[in-house]
DNA sequence: CCCAATGAGTTGCGGATTGAAACCATCATG
DNA sequence: CATGATGGTTTCAATCCGCAACTCATTGGG
């Protein structure tokens, strides 16, 4: 998936210094994050991912392989005997905040007021509150009150 | 960008009920979020976006147009007289938590230990703390302690 | 044992998307 | 007027994607 030529060996990233760009090199395509979303929601098998996302099967094959190769999923034999299954690794599970913020942005900006949509709730059925960036002292942070510091 | 045939008119979404999928329909491609990232970091002009991302110019034209059409950017004449510029709208700025969680995931999982990367710091130069999902009572939430509730 | 169904892919192919590079129009400056 | 910067558009080849058909290995009955 990398696209910029490097002078040295190893995986070549779009923007090697930027963690945002590196993450997008791994999951910044049309389908990967929807596969992760469904994995978080209980999908385990090839067919189940295919049914939920509606993705083309050859593309699903490719995405499952890439996500596995990058350590977001592991393929293992299901506890119930003989079938294979895909499960989230710790790194994969750690994408939860990403999926959540994508969800919350969508709820705010991709639906007309009053239009129904699915909701994320906790174990008691209470909606998950908005995830808002804050400094160590608790003050909210945004693009205007932060900036990127180059590596040194 | 839509990919699933609809029976009725209007924009057709990959998965109309899911806010995650709708967000990805708008910014879930290779470049859009990097453009947003650079806009948050001060980029304003076509040339500046092109320089920072390294994206092909025709694709940049397309992305800027789509992001503008979807209300994440506005094109306006720069305060300094005659040049055009692109600026984030409120909806665009509201992607800050998404960019931040992508960044933090990348920092944790896309760099080898000790490898240098850029950092996000607040106005005083202090690193922005990890953004962690929590319930109304403050207990941390993850994929295992939440679930999606279908719209009703 | 034979037949069908299911799961998990693979293959082939046409059409859509992307990337690289060249081209073009409009200013501003020297 | 020549040069350079800005902001694109055009062209064309390469890649990616979706669809449908095919394979292959397991079950599950009858």
From TrEMBL, chains A, B:
Upper taxonomic lineage: Bacteria, Bacillati, Actinomycetota, Actinomycetes, Kitasatosporales
Segments forming domain HTH hxlR-type: 18-114
Pfam family, one: HxlR
Protein's recorded name: Transcriptional regulator
Gene Ontology MF: a single term: DNA binding
Keywords assigned by UniProt, alphabetized: DNA-binding, Transcription, Transcription regulation
InterPro entries, sorted: ArsR-like_HTH, HTH_HxlR, WH-like_DNA-bd_sf, WH_DNA-bd_sf
Organism, as annotated: Streptomyces minutiscleroticus
CDD domains named in the record: HTH_ARSR
């Amino acid at each position: 998936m990398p696209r910029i030529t490097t002078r040295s060996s190893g995986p070549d990233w779009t923007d090697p210094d930027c963690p945002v760009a590196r993450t997008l090199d791994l999951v910044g395509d049309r389908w990967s994050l929807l596969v992760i979303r469904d994995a978080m929601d209980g999908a385990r098998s090839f067919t189940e991912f295919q049914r939920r996302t509606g993705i083309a099967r050859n593309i699903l094959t490719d995405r499952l392989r890439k996500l596995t190769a990058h350590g977001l999923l592991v393929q293992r034999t299901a506890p119930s005997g003989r079938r294979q299954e895909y499960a989230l690794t710790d790194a994969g599970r750690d994408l939860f905040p990403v999926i959540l913020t994508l969800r919350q942005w969508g709820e705010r900006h991709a639906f007309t007021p009053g239009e129904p949509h699915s909701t994320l709730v906790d174990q008691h059925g209470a909606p998950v509150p908005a995830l808002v960036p804050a400094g160590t002292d608790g003050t909210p942070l945004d693009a205007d009150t932060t900036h990127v510091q180059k590596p040194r």
